[in-house]
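General statements about sequence and structure are easier to judge against a single worked case. When preparing material for the folding task, we compiled for one chain both its residues and its backbone structure tokens. The amino acid sequence and the backbone structure tokens for this protein are reproduced below:
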Amino acid sequence: MSNELVLATNNLPISSGSLDQFIQNAQAFPMLSAEEEREYGYRLSEHGDLEAAQKLIMSHLRFVIRIARGYQGYGLPMADLVQEGNVGLMKAVKRFSPDHNVRLVSFAVHWIRAEIHEYVLKNWRIVKIATTKAQRKLFFNLRSSKKRLGWFSQEEVEGVAKDLGVKPETVLEMESRLSNYDMAFDATSDDDDDALIAPSSYIASPTHDPAQQLESTDWQQQRNDALAESLQTLDERSRDIIMSRWMDEESKATLHELAAKYGVSAERIRQLEKNAMKKVRVYLEA
């Protein structure tokens, strides 16, 4: 029924692109009494009445706006915060049952905040700042727990850790993350100072330099070509000995195997190999 619920509420005023108009329209929807809320709740849960779902959602849009305003300090678009809150409200309405004996506003607040929290965590910084449950809790409580600007004292760190049920080390780590800021990898201006602090100026990796990679590839190709040419200077038997002993990756021949092949002693094969390797080395060094 989730897809049907989305379709039934896809005419929310925020789709017009005007936040001010959305807020005005949201305030215009009347609040529901407890009896009306129970009636619409039963119509939705027992009969899948999408009109009842729409009534429940529209009457609580002003509540979504009120919650979203509490997250404006994160520098994210208010319209996006409200839209995420609307998603949470729709999820709450889908799961709401009057048998819980609670008002929808009390039930929905957790879903609304959860969607907004997820949006803030994903978009506040380029790099995700909170990944564990403890870090997520700290992210939304740390700034409100600060009594002054600047770094925490040890007493304040221990107090916050106790209040939030986390380790002091976790508080210090999150405080450090919140104090940092995003930086472009490359300098964004011609200012020499910006160029010096940009990560591209001190995190360069020579192993990924395209020029060096091309040079290395060309050098290796030249060595392979030179080796192929040096083998052509050998007689057929010596060339076969070198190829069988050193260039057959699957099964390298032994001295005795080659001795049996050419009807000579293993010592003679070793001498031929040694002389051939010497000729190849001289050619490569020339």
